[in-house]
């Protein structure tokens, strides 16, 4: 036990004195969250500039627009209306982030009980505001959908969620970047130092003491989980002080999600360290793993922005589920998946990465 | 109490086609300072790594402190201290932090500052290991080998890369260990070190032990003679030198002759006759007792450090 504690302290000192690791794992993600939060929110909460083209000749389109102009949505939505050409021009000039087009046959189709197609335009270049905007539009449309199909009970639930937690850019990013920083903890904060220690023969030297591999592992993993929780605390602190983000959900669930996420990516780090034979090799592996896991996860921008053929990959990436869980817990975002499913998929990945890590592990 | 601390019996270890250990057999008695002497690649480090349980021998039996590796590995490791030839350390920890850390890995440990003082690193106690010089790192590695107050200390080339002064203080550390009744197994390619420190020496070459005894016995066994060295200007008259009175052996190394003589005055007289006759011109003459270096040269035809 004292060996584990001593190694835990040694790991902590090494980490805290290694400026690069400190920067990559702790400071950079927080700085990114602040940066995205500032540039996309203008400091004063996120307002979606929504362009509406009403081509409907009947009353349903007008009713839909009237429903948008309520006191609750006023702060979140800047409504612009005009012809299709005008609104697409506005989208081009970034005066609006998303344009919805209500079709000509909307009234007729709704009256006939048939589905009408509402077109949604957005500019993928402005990833974040469109990403947050799409989420909002999705919510608005599903509300309208429920209203039109006459399902008031469900509508009430949706309304409440939008009301208490209007999704701002910083809300979106605090959770997403926390997920990414846990990924980096596993890649830059685990795989790289492990290979460096192996190359520097630290592990070999520890091998001629009575230390057991299990104790060494316990100390290393315990320290890194601590870092993961520190990251979460830092994110929430910066989010709260800078942007008034508060934790909507259960703190215990949050700790559980952060711990599970950290364990998943730490195991991935151990696996990559076992796979690589040199520090250069592991750096390359980290880059290869980092990019798709980070990009195809809905952490930086909404999953809807991606081309369809990426969707199956997004659907298996562990970070997809971690970011979704964190978003649900921290800012009560509309769920992509039920929370239990997020936890289950992360648990599954943990088992897979652990098995691979054990299979490929080597001391020298 | 075991009288034999380390027993290595018919150790074989092969890396690819290279036989790093080819039937190594020896025993180290409790309280003894035992040296493995040989050039780089002789198999010294492989032997030490097998004794440490870092490597699995292809065949042969190793007993340390009366135990064998396997189920009792941790018990063995609790009682030995090791300084590896290349020691990896946490770069961002200070000397004191590292010594303390390693102490915590053992059931019992000596105070960190006491161990640091023993190897003469007091002034560097707060220096991070990455900022130490090569010699200081070497001494830190020795400190880490002593922190658990081990019964057996293994030192793999403890003084390689040290300046002469640091080397002598390392020798003092080994002498202190011997005084304290510890068993020390060290490897070196410095003849002088082996002669100065070791109660017994095993001379290794190409994975085999080619001679084993006390340094003095090894020298006496191979040389009753005195060595006369000099540098010949021009072509040395080999036959004439070998035929000088009292000369039992003539060895050439890089064109430099070493005469081994049982009768130095008569050999010298013969040498000066050659000079007077004009068949020999030389300079830088030295007359010395035979050393382990001479033993190695005689046994292998090579000097130990090339």
- Overall, the morphology of chain A is elongated
Helix and strand element order of chain A:
HHEHHEHEHEHHHHHHHHHH
Shape of chain B: elongated
Category from helices, strands and their pairing of chain B: alpha/beta
Biggest sheet statistics of chain A: 4 strands, mixed
Please characterize this protein's 3D structure:
The complex is a heterodimer of chains A (364) and B (306). By secondary structure, chain A is mainly α. Helices cover 70% and strands 6% of the residues of chain A. Chain A is built from 16 helices and four strands. A four-stranded mixed β-sheet of chain A has the order 2-1-3-4, sandwiched between helices. In chain A, helix 1 crosses helix 11. The radius of gyration of chain A is 24 Å and the shape is elongated. Mean pLDDT of chain A is 82; it is low at 153-165. Chain B has 306 residues and is α/β, with parallel strands linked by helices. Helix content of chain B is 33%, strand content 29%. Chain B has helices at residues 44-51, 73-78, 95-104, 112-118, 134-146, 164-179, 191-197, 215-222, 238-242, 264-276, 292-300; strands spanning 4-15, 18-29, 33-37, 59-64, 80-83, 152-156, 183-188, 200-205, 208-213, 226-232, 247-253, 256-261, 282-289. Chain B starts with a strand and ends in a 6-residue tail after the last helix. The mean pLDDT of chain B is 89. The interface between A and B is medium-sized, with 26 and 29 residues.
